[in-house]
Design a protein that fits this description.
single chain, 1381 residues, alpha+beta, Rossmann fold, five-stranded parallel β-sheet, 37 helices, 30% helix, 3'-5' DNA helicase activity, single-stranded DNA binding
Length: 1381
């Protein structure tokens, strides 16, 4: 009989042992025994396998699932044979199943071939072997292993019978193929019986006939041992498995399974190619799969009746919430609310599927954020033990693929398949992520979907699927600065994005607060844990780990609570109040909270409520559950949101108050003195300071080693020595009664006495080297002196008075104000008890001084800016003196070390130094590190250390930026053969040049200005002040200079000036005027058929251009000022050489006068005319392009030659794309447009209307933004212009000879000057010489220079200037004329 599909032929043989003994067909006997087992095995009069086979055949499933325990109970010998020789017995078992199926289907009448082949699948939970314990002794035996599926390949077709055909004689042969990974050996010689006179078939003549082969589905699985079975310190082991037929596509990555199979071996291709013939790779041929858990659906765990009764009694006994939470990590003292939150996380809420198919998660996510040493990691480790399903990982060692899923290529089939990550493997359980803040941002983003939608979408390597990741996340992280700082907002402490924080249901801020009673209790608890006693005494809670684990499983399996109507109503009200509270907090702090309160947080409270009900096996969540859920949420997330507020004050108020307390302590408390902390606190609180701000200020001073506690007292010590010595004061032996207040008139004298006392009375001014404090230390009252007593007030520094930054972020700033505190206090307590406060001599002490005025600016910032300027100008001694007197330093030690590391090229220390001083924002970290690594990369290249440079490029630079072109440019520098070529190619002056200084300057933009003052900050402030003065100056037309003694203001006589220059050279009306782009010349066009070039140095005539037969109406300078194009009423254009004044070309393509002309570049210009043509010309005289257009009155071209604006005779401005001369859009005016003007940046366009109106258009928004009026215009063309620095003015003429000048920004009329006797035809502005020119019908050109005072050198009228060379068109010039008509 042929072997069953997927198996080798039966390998059981018999022989006679004794002579004459009758042979028995053991193979047939075994098959008959197996057939009888299928037909006759029953349980409670139910024939289990006969009925199962009948049902499976009826639904088209050709398989039979057999329990090995049932085979054992039926025949132990048969079961033992099945375990020892499964490859031999299973084919017989499947043949017996097929015989049984034939009896069921056809009553035994049909042939065997008419019945489908039946696959027998075995399952067994007995003698489960760990994957790491599989060895050579189990080869070819039936084994049972458990683990997690981490990879499942796509289906492949496995041949079970291969049909071969000889190419020579057409003989066919069927070769069976072994199961699993076994292959087939194709015969090399044809075995057909030889025929007479026939040739033998050649070698290797067989071909595979695919159509006649038999195939089954096959899938490769990769199973890893369960995490709870991995020994400590060992790596998880995995094994490869082969499943076929009905066993394929049964499991997916993340499924927890128990697999029964045959442990066997195969020869891998790599071992075969290496010649290792005797080396075989082990694998498991799967014969049965039992899914323990797939996703979140457990196979029904069978609880005994006794267990169920115990769990129900435990829930009904009351107090299960307290018992369970107290049993969580009993070795960890305190953290009761965190343990309660973890209890809720283990049980989770109720999962819901909405009618539209949307699923709402029930799993709870918790984030523990806090100081080091607060047992966060131990809590995570305990949860890993108590949760039925859990994965523990660390953020630093986790990648995005490790957390979600990775795509792996099968080494055999070369196909891709998925391997699940932590979130997939923990499906239905808990993922514990330690060091959550150490994860890379891109890895953290990978779990966003899993934390909310509880799925992981994969679209890689042609695989598109969605994996279940229905797990809770318990994460632990440290704050941004290592320890949580109450003086900073939550956003400054938490280095996470809002998107990830919103996915946590509860966020706990765990602080290591200094509390003497609590510290003593913790110390006793820790000593009990470390004492020599049994582990049960120390760690035992009310519930054992096993009981907790089983109870969690029971509750999650049997209970899914729902909210009562009252509970839902209360939750709704709480959400509204919670949102209102957050809005109030954000309004008071003037910034958005980094921890959002959205609908997700409402759902979080719902989940917490349901978990509390589930914990008690209650089907309904009541008001009591809601109250506890709200309390937990307030103690966690809402407490984190409110961490920036204290005693009803905002964080900024608290910081300002703390700074005032700190500075007052520094100023009033002499070095070496002692003071009662109780008295100090009482004095400050009596003056209105909050107790919290006083405590925080003293705490920070102790951390800065400015103050120190000793034997219940704060005493002074030498901060420069390892052991701080006590500096006792003679005042300590005197009475502790506080001194009387000084009158205001005596304050200055008292300060002088204090100064003398601080210097020890000997004029030395130093007390740090003596062992006693001055006697007058007692007479330093902490009084709130009025400003009149010492001339110095102490306003709170406001954020808008920050001098170190440009208002883009608060940064880390110091407040230099000296706030006074009322009340008086003694320097010692003298047996009073309580702490005593002292100051180190290592801290600078500010001497008494008199402030002459109040200032809203921080004293520290002002002093540091002066220090920077002194440093930049080389006043080193003055800088040192200022540092000594003020007590401020230009840079602290970490910042100075960072600067020194950069300039010295100590790159291994630069990164640590940068992180020690901090960045202005975390987003700037990659940019700053990229600048550092780029400099290091270039210096390695310069020193020809190519290997180190390549490592930096591959491992560091490529991870810090997404700018691929920049990385390509850097990689190309590796090919530079010499340092000189490198410096040229990189535009870099080398490591010994100024490159390090440039890197340092670029890094300063990423560092808080409070740490490192921006480069040339004082000059920047000066420039900004002058720029602001220029902005408010309505008539600003000339440079403000660098005068710091007075404010800048342009007088009304500056522009237009009181005295203008009149140029007389034309014999008739002047119609057009224009300055050259370089500012050296002025050109005017006249009705007298000539153009005149004037020198702007003395406004003398350079050339008089003659040649036109008609009036010259227009001219335009080339961009390089070397040529002029003029347009005349004789319908021609002429191109003039400025250097010689001669005509280069004549153009005759227009049928009417060219009304406008503009240059596109130095070789082409464009003209428009009333003949409805727009033509592009070349300087060589050729017509380049021509298009039809409306009748053109005037044209302008944008500065980048991309747009052309043409005004027609129908009150419209047509806008064209110059690259294609295609129409884009048009601007509509209410009247005929006479002329156009464009601003220097081509954003604004002026339109001069026939009605006497002047409009300004914004070309970006295509809207009219300003109107100017007042001048007179009728039928004449008057050309307007932008004028002044940055086009601040709009100027135009009037038909009555008046010049009008408006402010462009406001539209205000600034000047109205009568400059000509007849109509002004045009205006032109020159930026280089700061002058305005006007052309008039009175035959003159007037120059309006912008200057201070009267111009004595050119104040005369220049009339009748003789030209240096006057040119006329003669016969020789006719050769250059070209006609394009």
């Amino acid at each position: 009989m042929a072997a069953a599909q997927g198996w080798d032929s039966a390998q059981i043989y018999t022989r006679s042992v004794h002579s004459g003994e009758e042979l028995k067909d053991d193979r047939n006997q075994l098959q008959q025994t197996l057939f009888d087992f299928i037909q006759n095995f029953r349980d409670d009069n139910v024939f289990i396998y006969r009925e199962q086979l009948r049902q499976n055949i009826g639904i088209g499933e050709n398989s039979l699932d057999v329990s090995l325990q049932d085979v054992t109970s039926y025949d132990e010998v048969l079961a033992q044979q099945l375990v020892n020789h499964p490859a031999d017995i299973l084919p017989l078992f499947e043949a017996a199943a097929r015989n049984s199926a034939r009896r069921i289907v056809a009553g035994g009448a049909a042939g065997l071939d008419d019945v489908p082949e039946i696959q027998v699948m075995l399952r067994s939970n007995a003698n489960v072997v760990n994957i790491r314990d599989l060895g050579s002794s189990q080869i070819s035996r039936l084994v049972c292993v458990s683990g997690i599926v981490i990879g499942a390949s796509s289906l492949t077709s496995k041949a079970t019978r291969v049909t071969l055909q000889c190419r020579s004689c057409r003989h066919t042969k069927v070769v069976p193929v072994g199961g699993g990974f076994a292959g087939v050996q194709i015969p090399r010689v044809c075995d057909r019986e030889p025929v007479a006179n026939s040739e033998r078939c050649p070698l290797d003549s067989f071909d595979i006939v695919t159509d006649k082969c038999s195939f089954v589905d096959q899938q490769t699985l990769k199973v890893q041992e369960a995490p709870d079975l991995i020994p400590v310190g060992e790596l998880p082991r995995h094994t490869v498995m082969s499943a076929d037929r009905a066993l394929t596509n049964r499991v997916f990555p993340g499924s927890r399974v128990t697999i029964t199979g045959i442990f066997t071996v195969y020869q891998s291709k790599s071992a075969k190619s290496a010649g290792a013939v005797a080396i075989r790779q082990p694998y498991l041929r799967v014969v049965g799969i039992e899914i323990v858990k797939s996703g979140n659906s457990f196979t029904k765990r069978v609880f005994t009746a006794q267990e169920e009764q115990e769990f129900v009694a435990l829930a009904r006994a009351g107090g299960i919430y307290s018992k369970f939470s107290s049993s969580i990590a009993p070795s960890i003292f305190g953290n009761e609310d965190i343990k309660r939150a973890i209890a809720c996380l283990l049980f989770g809420g109720s999962k819901k599927t909405l009618p539209d198919g949307m699923r709402l998660r029930g799993d709870i996510n918790v984030l523990l954020l806090g100081d080091p040493g607060t047992a966060k990691s131990q809590l995570l480790k305990f949860v890993e033990k108590v949760s039925p399903i859990s994965i523990y990982t660390s953020g630093k060692g986790s990648s995005a693929a490790g957390l979600t899923a990775s795509v792996i290529r099968d080494p055999t089939s070369r196909e891709f398949y998925l391997e699940g990550g932590a979130m997939v493997l923990a499906d239905g359980g808990v993922v514990c992520i330690d060091e959550f803040d150490k994860m890379r941002d891109e890895d953290r983003v990978a779990i966003h979907e899993a934390m909310e939608q509880q799925t992981i979408s994969i679209a890689k390597a042609g695989i598109t699927t969605i994996l279940n990741a229905r797990s809770s996340v318990l994460a632990a992280a440290n704050p941004l600065f290592g320890r949580y700082d109450d003086t900073k907002a939550a956003g400054d402490n938490i280095d996470f994005q809002t998107t990830i924080l919103s996915r946590f249901d509860m966020i706990f801020v765990v602080k290591d607060e200094h509390n003497e009673l609590r510290d003593q209790t913790i110390a006793r608890h820790v000593m009990q844990v470390h004492a020599t006693r049994t582990a049960a005494e120390v760690e035992g809670g009310e519930l054992s780990l096993e009981t907790m684990r089983h109870y969690v499983t029971f509750c999650k399996d049997r209970c899914a609570p729902r909210l009562s109507a009252e509970a839902a109503e209360k939750l709704s009200s709480f959400f509204v109040a919670m949102r209102a509270q957050l809005w109030s907090i954000e309004r008071d702090s003037a910034e958005r909270s980094v921890i959002p309160i959205t609908v997700r947080q409402l759902e979080a409270v719902v989940r917490i409520t349901e978990s509390l009900a589930k914990m008690e096996l209650s089907p309904v969540a009541t008001i009591e559950h809601v109250d506890e859920a709200i309390r937990l949420f307030r103690m966690s997330t809402m407490d984190a949101v409110q961490s920036g507020q204290n005693d009803g004050s905002t964080r900024s108020d608290l910081n300002a108050e703390m700074r005032r307390v700190e500075q007052e302590v520094r100023r009033r408390l002499p070095i070496g003195s002692q003071v009662s902390v109780r008295a100090l606190k009482n004095d400050f609180t009596a003056q209105g300071f909050s107790a919290h701000s006083v405590d925080r200020a003293l705490y920070l001073l102790v951390r800065q080693e400015t103050l120190q506690f000793k034997s219940q007292r704060m005493i002074t010590g030498d901060s420069h020595t390892p052991s701080k010595r006590t500096l006792s004061s003679r005042a300590n032996a005197s009475s502790s009664r506080p001194p009387k207040r000084q009158r205001s008139s005596d304050t200055q004298q008292q300060q002088q006495t204090n100064t003398a006392a601080n210097s020890g009375g000997d004029g030395s001014g130093s007390s740090s080297n003596r062992s006693s404090a001055p006697d007058s230390a007692m007479t330093l009252p902490l009084d709130n002196h009025p400003a009149s007593s010492n001339g110095c007030s102490s306003p709170t520094t406001q954020p808008n008075n920050d001098l170190l930054s440009n208002g883009e972020g608060e940064g880390e700033r110091s407040n230099g104000s000296n706030a006074a505190v009322g009340g008086s206090i003694s320097s010692s307590d003298n047996g009073n008890g309580g702490n005593t406060l002292c100051r180190y001599p290592g801290q600078p002490q500010q001497t008494s001084r008199t402030c002459l005025r109040d200032s809203p600016y921080s004293e520290e910032q002002v002093v540091r800016l002066i220090m920077q300027e002194l440093h930049d100008r080389g006043f080193v001694d003055t800088l040192n003196l200022l540092q000594k007197e003020s007590g401020f330093t230009l840079e602290d030690e970490p910042t100075a070390r960072f600067r020194a590391s950069i300039l010295a090229g100590e790159w291994d220390q630069v990164e640590d130094a940068l992180l020690s001083i901090g960045l202005s924002s975390e987003e700037n970290k990659n940019a700053a590190l990229f600048a550092i690594k780029k400099q290091q990369f270039l210096e390695h290249l310069e020193e020809r250390r190519l290997k180190q440079a390549l490592l930096i490029l591959q491992n560091e630079l490529s991870t810090l930026t997404q700018d691929i072109p920049q990385l390509h440019r850097l990689s190309s520098l590796l090919m530079c053969p010499t340092p000189e070529e490198l410096r040229i190619a990189a535009s870099w002056d080398g490591g010994k040049g100024r490159s390090r200084f440039q890197v340092l300057e670029s890094l300063q933009s990423y560092i808080s200005p409070g740490k490192m003052v921006p480069v040339h900050r004082m000059e920047t402030l000066f420039d900004q002040a002058i720029e602001r003065q220029c902005d408010v100056c309505e008539r600003h037309v000339i440079s403000a200079g660098h005068d710091l003694y007075s404010d800048h203001s342009c007088a009304s006589s500056v522009f237009p000036p009181e005295l203008q220059i009149s140029l007389k050279g034309h014999d008739d009306e002047v119609w057009y005027v224009a300055f050259s782009p370089d500012g050296q010349y002025l050109a005017s066009a006249s009705r007298d058929k000539t153009c005149i070039l004037w020198s702007t140095n003395d406004y003398s005539i350079v050339h008089r251009l003659r040649g036109h037969d008609g009036e010259v109406s227009y001219l335009e300078w080339s961009p390089d000022s070397s040529m002029i194009v003029s347009a005349s009423n004789d319908k021609t254009l002429r191109l003039w050489d400025v250097a010689t004044g001669k005509c280069k070309n004549t153009y005759t393509g227009h049928e009417e006068t060219a009304s406008s002309c503009k240059w596109l570049d130095s070789e082409r210009f464009i003209t428009g005319s009333l003949d409805q043509k727009i033509i592009i010309w070349s300087t060589s005289g050729l017509l380049v392009k021509q298009i039809s257009s409306p009748r053109v009155h005037d044209m302008v071209v944008s500065v980048d030659s991309s747009l052309l604006l043409a005004a027609d005779n129908n009150s419209s401005v047509h806008v064209y794309d110059l690259s294609t001369l295609t129409f884009l859009y048009k601007l509509e005016e209410p009247a005929t447009i006479m002329s156009l003007a464009l601003s220097s940046d081509s954003r604004y366009c002026l339109t001069e209307l026939r009605t006497g109106s002047l409009h300004m258009w914004d070309l970006e928004t295509r809207t009219r933004v300003r109107d100017f009026s007042g001048h007179i215009q009728g039928g004449y063309v008057i050309r307007c212009t932008f004028a002044g620095l940055d086009d601040r003015f709009v100027a135009t003429g009037s038909e009555d000879g008046t010049l009008f000048v408006w402010s462009r920004s406001t539209g205000k009329l600034l000047e109205r000057v009568k400059s000509h006797t007849k109509s002004i035809n045009g205006c032109a502005w020159c930026r280089q010489v700061s002058a305005l020119a006007t052309a008039s019908d009175d035959k003159t050109v007037c120059i309006w220079p912008a200057y201070h005072g009267a111009p004595s050198d050119i104040s005369r009228n220049i009339a009748g200037q003789s030209s240096r060379s006057e040119t006329s068109l003669n016969d020789s010039d006719d050769r250059s004329m070209m006609s394009n008509a």
